[in-house]
Queue: 2 jobs
Job 1
Amino acid sequence: MTRRATLRGAERTLLHGSRGRADVLVCGASFAGLAVARELAGAGADVLVVDRYEIGERATSACAAPTEWLMAMGAERAIRQELPCMTYHTPHGSVRHRLPWSWSSFDYRELCGALWAQCGDARFEIAKVDARIAEVVHTDRGDLTAPLIVDALGWRRVLAPGPNVQPPDARISRGLEVHPDMPPPAAGDLEVWVDRSLVRRGYAWSVPAGAEQRVGVGSYEPRDHVRAPTAAIAERLGRPAVRHQGNWFPHQLRAATEDGVFFVGDSAGHCFPLSGEGIRTAFYFGIACGRELRAVLAGERTRAAALAGYDAFSRSHRPAFAWALALQRVVPALPPRALTALLALMGRRRLSDRAYGWYLRQAAPGR
Ligand SMILES: Cc1cc2nc3c(=O)[nH]c(=O)nc-3n(C[C@H](O)[C@H](O)[C@H](O)COP(=O)(O)OP(=O)(O)OC[C@H]3O[C@@H](n4cnc5c(N)ncnc54)[C@H](O)[C@@H]3O)c2cc1C
């Protein structure tokens, strides 16, 4: 019998005394949380990371990110396939874009493992986070306390004051994908379908990832269901709709700090509208947050100054997120023939270099 990695029932002992106290409490051990904790390695602080699942246990993403970001995060061993081109399909044709940089699909468990290996002496505990009051975070394994608290728990924004973000009324999109085996040869592009017969406001994708293919649908309209469209795109590709995984993802920037808490990744809306790309932004803002926390731990900055600095950094990206949100509203409304012509135009080398170059620079590695 396979043993589930996550601790269950009696194995979930209370985190008493010093086990429940830390200098920094990072809630969430996915892209954003691990990027923050990695930045704190060697800071000489007690960093506690918690998640309801074992690190790397449960992916909710197609796991494609710019290759240079995966290299910058020291996670190249997790790469499954490099994808230098994107192909867009509309009901009126297909257009191939060669990017000035490449995507890579990766293995979630291996990526998380590679990030955690760089987190130094940080501790990890499995715990389900329920709520927070001031510096106390309530979990199913007892109360955890820290003067510096990070919410990297994803779109629900669990540690914010007031009710959590709830679909379908929130500014969030929904996504679902299947993971059929990829018959060899495994070459291919990252493919995108903008086709209203599949999804009214959104897109479908196919991400080759070595021995498997990640085929899914994202809807900007959270009320529209994505299960039937996902089955339809899988069928169109002649692939079985097996191994489902799905989640919600934000499409609007939210406050990156609130009530003394640092919000990173999807909890802060750090997921680009239009593309729904939230992995590299989780890394990018996670690093920025980690640097602020490190300065506090080193006594170079007060907590209040770090909160203000991180909030200002996140806000400075508002124009790019606003642009992407405007495009997310416009693109589904464009006549399909006009969209096809626009995509063909964008496929011209100089234009695509400029457009994709701009897009990468909004959250580039090494800043
Ligand atoms: C189907 C789909 C495909 C996608 N594909 C891509 C893609 O290819 N590339 C890309 O860049 N983006 C993609 N995205 C978006 C991307 O997945 C998110 O933006 C990204 O995961 C955000 O990272 P995060 O660390 O902020 O949050 P998450 O990855 O959602 O991590 C949150 C963590 O918090 C934990 N957690 C949540 N609630 C609790 C709780 N109450 N207690 C304890 N732990 C908790 C979770 O277990 C998880 O580990 C996709 C999204 C979907 C839905």
Job 2
Amino acid sequence: MKPSPIVPLIVATLLFLSPAIAAPPYMQTDTAFYPYAPSLLKWEKTEAEFTEPETCGECHPEKYEQWQGSMHAIAFKDPLYQGELNLAATKAGHGITRQCEGCHTPAAVVKGEIKGAGLKDLSPLALAGVSCDVCHSVKGHTHWETPSHQPENGSLVLSPGTNDGELTKYGPAAPDEDCGDGFHTCVESPLHTSSELCASCHQVFNHRTHTPLEVSYQEWRDSPYSANNIHCQDCHMVDTKTFKRSADELVRPERSEYRHYFNGANLFLYDMTARAAEKNGDKDLAANAREKYAMALARLKAAAELAVFPVYRNGRLAEIRIRVKNIRAGHNLPTSLTNIRQMWLEVTATDADGKVLMATGSPGPKGALPKGTRIFNTQGQDANLNFSIYPWEIETFSKNDTIPPKGFRDVIYGLSMEKKIPVTVHARLRFRQADQEIAEKLLRLVPDPGHLEKIYGIKEIPLLPVVDMTETTVVINTP
Ligand code: HEC
Ligand code: HEC
Ligand code: HEC
Ligand code: HEC
Ligand code: HEC
């Protein structure tokens, strides 16, 4: 008997439907809508080209200078990023690393210039990372169309200009007649005054499961700052004094107070940027990066507060309770790469005889933290529930111990009963960008091994700076 043509059709239909029936345990991305998936960037392709920051800087020199020493300017060149990108390309392939590149150098991704890790033979636009024309070509976003229905993985729409090649720049204010000086036209964009602009890139989700991995925006959205209309720009695009006012008084800065600093907590990279500039004999850029370092230090020092409380049992001092308060970070403390950043408590308690009752959290000679140190971080795990620090592997978390905005965490330390009152407690909240070993591992992975010496003039990886965010000393007597 001749097989009916219907049978293969049914088989084909069943084959086609079966993935839907045995629904995969993850969210799929519509690749027709998101052609750069797993990056969720979109590009309105026209005759208009992206412009290098140096060109924008000719008419906007102050913005250029402020941006230049910032993490956005080195988002692609960042050697820690390059190291991890290189590893991701080896382990997961370029089909996956496009996700990384979509946030770390978006214009070069839509133009198809980036093929993986390394800085060789790339255009100045590609090397410029999150450059002027990335943010000011943002016409809109697709936050609600993403698989997670959240801003994630660069869900922005880039549109540098119109079909007749005219450049269109989106900015915060209503333009006047000669806005753009004939070089570009100006469009007023309320998006640019809101956290929604920053959200798409400051939310890293796993490319397969869409598990939220870095969620500064989500943390902000659930905070008193969002409820009071204080946005990312109000703390990160202003000087230290204005940032403190935004955080304390919950009033938005004046338009004239905004600056393109995008300053956060990345001390190590500001230091590396300064080293690279010094090596190149660029004194201005070196000074600029050192200023950004000082600014990040001030921001970290303003973020938290400590309080120490004695706990008595049967009239005797039994424990101390240390409260860590997030007083000025608009999101959790720490935020974003919370599985890599380290914020921890270093505490010592001594009695009246000078006997050390308890000591915890002092880094060893090579920077390692001792067991039992209280770290406020997250720990990711891969599909097999093994510990992982890599965004392409992490699908779930085994720990989340970061501190919400205007919130606190209490840590309790027991004390032995054998002690002479009064007891002196010295507590410090300390921060560094990464565990020394992890930083060294990533830096060793940069694609061009001579890169660190050629660009930064370093042979040995320096100890990552450790910052005292805040400290307190309290003398405890009997109740
Ligand atoms: C949704 C946008 C986005 C995606 C996708 C993304 N990143 Fe990032 N990445 C960021 C942001 C934003 C930061 C900065 C956060 C901070 O400073 O704490 C960052 C920081 C980093 C850092 C830390 C750099 C430093 O100097 O401390 C590394 C390393 C990194 N990313 C690697 C990757 C790799 C590898 C991938 C792809 C597997 C990736 N990123 C995907 C946005 C993204
Ligand atoms: C990460 C995104 C981002 C990058 C990168 C960026 N900007 Fe902006 N820019 C903004 C935002 C947000 C505002 C609005 C701040 C405010 O509310 O005044 C702004 C405002 C502006 C304004 C209007 C300022 C005013 O006072 O009205 C100009 C001009 C400008 N940017 C130029 C530049 C130039 C030039 C560069 C590169 C050197 C650059 N921007 C890089 C986000 C960005
Ligand atoms: C030939 C000079 C010139 C160049 C080059 C130039 N701009 Fe402008 N731009 C202006 C002038 C003039 C204004 C209006 C005054 C102001 O805001 O500084 C302006 C305004 C803006 C605004 C504010 C728009 C608003 O309504 O809030 C943004 C954003 C902006 N430019 C971004 C850029 C970016 C990004 C580049 C590079 C792609 C660039 N400009 C290159 C001259 C220029
Ligand atoms: C196109 C993607 C993109 C957009 C849009 C974006 N960022 Fe970023 N941002 C990044 C990346 C990538 C990094 C990390 C660079 C690195 O560490 O290598 C970063 C880093 C930062 C940092 C960390 C600096 C530090 O010192 O640790 C701050 C703060 C920041 N961004 C604020 C903002 C704010 C505020 C906005 C919105 C006005 C914004 N970003 C918009 C991609 C973006
Ligand atoms: C009320 C002020 C405030 C607001 C609003 C705010 N931040 Fe921050 N941010 C801080 C402070 C303070 C720090 C330094 C302490 C820390 O690392 O959390 C910081 C640090 C950061 C860092 C660097 C983290 C690291 O370890 O490298 C990033 C990235 C960042 N913020 C992004 C954002 C984004 C995106 C938004 C908006 C969704 C935002 N911030 C809103 C105050 C603020």
